[in-house]
Amino acid sequence: MKRIVFAYLMLVAGCIIARAQSPEVLDSAIVSDYRPRSDRKTQTSMIKIDRKDFKFKAVLSTPDVIKTLQMLPGVTPGNEMSSTMNVRGGTGGDNLYLLDNVPLYQSGHFLGIFSAFNTDVIQSADFYKGGFPSHFGGRASSVVDVRVKEGDMKEHHGSFSIGVTDGRFQMEGPIRKDVLSYNVAVRYSWVEMFLRPILKAVSIPDVSYSNDYTRDGHFGFADLNAKFTWQKSTRDKISFNTYLGFDYMSYKDADRKLSGASSMNKSIYKDANRWGNALFSTVWERTLSARRKMVSTYYVSDGYYNALHENSDRFQDDKLYRLESNISSVLDIGTKIHFSDKSFSGHQLNYGASAVYRLFSPVAFSHSYTERGRVRYDEKKTMAGRYYHSPEIAVYAEDEFTVTPYIYLNAGLRYILYLTGDKVYNALEPRLALSYNPSRLLSLKMSYSEMSQPVHQLESFRSDSPGSFWMPATAVMKPVRSRIVSAEAEWRPDRHFLLNLSGFWKNMRHLYEYTGSNVLPSPAAWETEFTEGKGRSYGVEFYGEFQSERWDVSAAYTLSWSQRFFEAFYRDWYRDRYDNRHNLVLNGVYKAHELIDIYVTWILRSGNRFTIPSYGCYYLGSESLYPNNFQLPAYHRLDAGINFRAVSARKGRDYIVTFAVYNLYGRKNPFYITLTEDVYSRPAVKMTSIFPVMPTLRYTLYF
Fold first, then answer.
1. What angle do CA 336, 414, 483 make, to 5 degrees?
2. Is the distance from CB of 360 to CB of 145 less than 8 angstroms?
3. How does strand 423-439 pair with strand 407-420?
């Protein structure tokens, strides 16, 4: 109730401020620009996204980093609204998220609808899905390098935004002019207040072979970003960065009645999760000479995830009760030092080192029993926990140089030393990139990269958890290893058009799948209830865009194959759970007026896959023919929005009112599926949707 009152008070205050603005309007100005991509001539499979590009990639009228990246070719989300990114056939847990060069373990808010990166304070985001520079390492598929904007050294200004789902406030300015500045932003969500009534209103009966909307639950998030920048001298700059974020989500499904051979007449399922991040860092930038620069980073990063799953099944005579609780925490204490050197003509050198001490502290608790009357039978309680200490050291060097006026080469090497218990892992990661530029309009590039990942994100076939449960590589559970070959051709005939055609091949080793019976594994089961396999993926990607004074239109299409080989499951290659063969994203922005923007996004992709114990119309018993043998219906939806902007030249303020609709034509895309039995005791598939048509309204004031 307090949150509801607070939300409406904020909304009323925002409307009063908007009403008080002067109707004065500045004359329009036309600025011609194009989207920046990379400042390295040899860089492949990378795109640089400026803060203005997040504006029209909003979800629920909220700009978002990861939702923007998910619209690029080669990238798909795990599930609807998820902040997971499956990059070029990756696992979703093999993406490195960096906030000012510091790793972030929990990347999503509220089921992944929002990411942990607040666009109010972000300067840019560099996204790599191949051709990795040698200073990046630790993940097998991609790197998301997010940079926080430094505070203004001259004057104070900020923004205030209130929407149906959340409220945001950002402020920046000088503490001491030209010497010390700040940039602070907070977000708080009241999405539960808005979403729950809609979910209840559109609910339909819980029947097999149909969609249903989740109705009962509690969910929300909050986070804080703060950056202080000290211009110590003309050669030295020091920044202090903080990020704190947390989420909570609970769900209850009660009075679920089943028919057929089962005698169950009531089931109660409860699910509760909490996850978040705490990050602190200091960055020292020093200009050593006109052509040499040093950047050193010192940081502490903590990511945690707590999950509780409770199930109570009541039969005619008995009650079966089961509780599982898992706590995961990973703490990094690290330092990095990086040098960029252009002292040698025609060469650009980058070299440095990093060291991190990583502590994992997982704990698992379980409780189960059978109850008849008031007497309990077979009651069991277990608790397991342990600590993993995992130091890691890496050194790297690379050189980008000109071979001929049209050919550029980048050669790099990264060495990683990883200790876990009594086991020591050494890995060399070669990086090579070649670029041929026959004209300023056309570039042809190719690259080869190897990456090692000494941490594992755990998943279960039985649950799509909102947070990330991390465990270390050990003597038994080896680090993930990937090899990626990329090639691309990019043509920019003029400042309006851009066409990019890419191809990739990826090989992954030492992938692990959980084989136990719990929702999430116990720390005691790490190394015993997992099976090792490998993966491969390949495909082609197309990206095209057109920009003019009034239009900004883009299309991204991916045709790809993603496969897995786990001998414990099947003795041949089979399609991955997220083998989305076709993936198409169309995005358009129309500037109807200097103060009115209209934008639409349409997404279409092949459905995810799932394992069921049936094939066609025949019952196969408890064993499936092969993993992921059932494909969900194709996913598609249409989002649309409109921005109304007003500017006050006299007061130096402007504001934007945004109206947006998510899933405009009400497509019931499956969010998760469960297996049941029909009246003839045959396997049946129930697909559940939780995101109907959702209109949103947002007011943003810049001052």
1. 125
2. no
3. antiparallel
Residues 6+ apart with CB under 8 A from 535: 89, 91, 506, 507, 508, 511, 562, 563, 564, 565, 576
Joined tokens for residue 182: 């700040």
Nearest 10 degrees: Cα torsion 577, 503, 66, 564: 20
Is residue 249 within 8 Å of residue 466, measured between CB atoms? Answer: yes
Contact between 512 and 477 under an 8 Å Cβ cutoff? The reply is yes
Output the pTM of the full model: 0.87
User: Using one digit for the tens of pLDDT, what is the confidence trace for 305-337?
Assistant: 988 888 888 777 788 888 888 888 999 999 999
d(CA 135, CA 140): 14
- 576 contacts 560 by C-beta, under 8 angstroms: no
For residue 588, pLDDT beyond 60: yes
SS3 call for 600: strand
Distance, first Cα to last Cα, the chain: 30
Main-chain phi, psi angles of 82, to 5 degrees: -70, 145
| pLDDT value of position 50 | 82
Query: What 8-state DSSP symbol labels residue 567?
Result: T
Place 460 in a pLDDT band, splitting at 50, 70 and 90.
low
The alpha carbon torsion through 95, 100, 105, 110 (nearest 10 deg) reads: -100
Return the pLDDT at 14.
42
Task: For 502-516, give the secondary structure using H, E and C.
Answer: EEEEEEEEEEEEECC
652: tokens are 């130096």
